[in-house]
Specification:
CATH class: Alpha Beta
CATH architecture: Alpha-Beta Complex
Structural class: alpha+beta
Distance between the termini: 100 Å
Number of domains: 1
Helix content: 25-40%
Strand order of the largest sheet: 1-3-2
Radius of gyration: 29 Å
Shape: flat
CATH topology: Ribosomal Protein L22, Chain A
Number of helices: 5
Number of strands: 3
Strand content: 25-35%
Order of helices and strands: EHHHEEHH
CATH superfamily: Ribosomal protein L22/L17
């Protein structure tokens, strides 16, 4: 069973929060919490709060053991943006967007189901042998004739 926790209207851009969410996806919750505690970013603090909330939801509402939980998904999506203006030269103004995001963390018990849900690594395709070069490709590029400089006149 998956348990979800959402932090809405976090005052940071979703791009900054995604850097941290990518780091903890797929980790056991104990390891994810330690990574978040030692990451010096505002996003790490907010995602840590959300992860702790998801763990508490799993323990209290669904009677799951916290030691068996894994972070299945951690996502930061765009929220609304506060629109402000910054005064500029000669009476003009420039727009400023103060962005917000919604942080969602999903945890699940570490079981065979979790292993099936996780995407398996895709094997890279084998390289194909080099194709035969056509006659046009075999031709060497035409060399440009060096520009001849006019001979300097000798003055006695």
């Amino acid at each position: 069973m998956q348990v979800k926790s959402v932090l809405k209207y976090a005052r940071m851009s979703s791009q900054k929060a995604r850097e941290v969410t990518r780091a903890i996806t797929g980790m056991p919750v104990s390891q994810a919490l330690s990574v978040l505690d030692f990451t010096p970013k505002k996003a790490a603090f907010l995602i840590g709060k959300t992860l702790r909330s998801a763990i508490a939801n799993a323990e209290h509402n669904h009677e799951m053991d916290a030691e068996d939980l894994v972070v299945v998904s951690a996502v930061a999506t765009d929220g609304p943006a506060l629109k402000r203006i910054m005064p500029r030269a000669r009476g003009s103004a420039a727009p400023i967007k103060k962005r917000m995001c919604h942080i969602t963390v999903i945890v699940a018990a570490k079981t065979a189901e979790t292993k099936e849900e996780a995407p398996e690594p895709v094997a890279e395709p084998e390289e194909k042998p080099a194709a035969k070069k056509t006659a046009a490709a075999k031709k060497a590029p035409a060399k440009k004739a060096a520009a001849k400089k006019p001979a300097a006149k000798k003055e006695d």
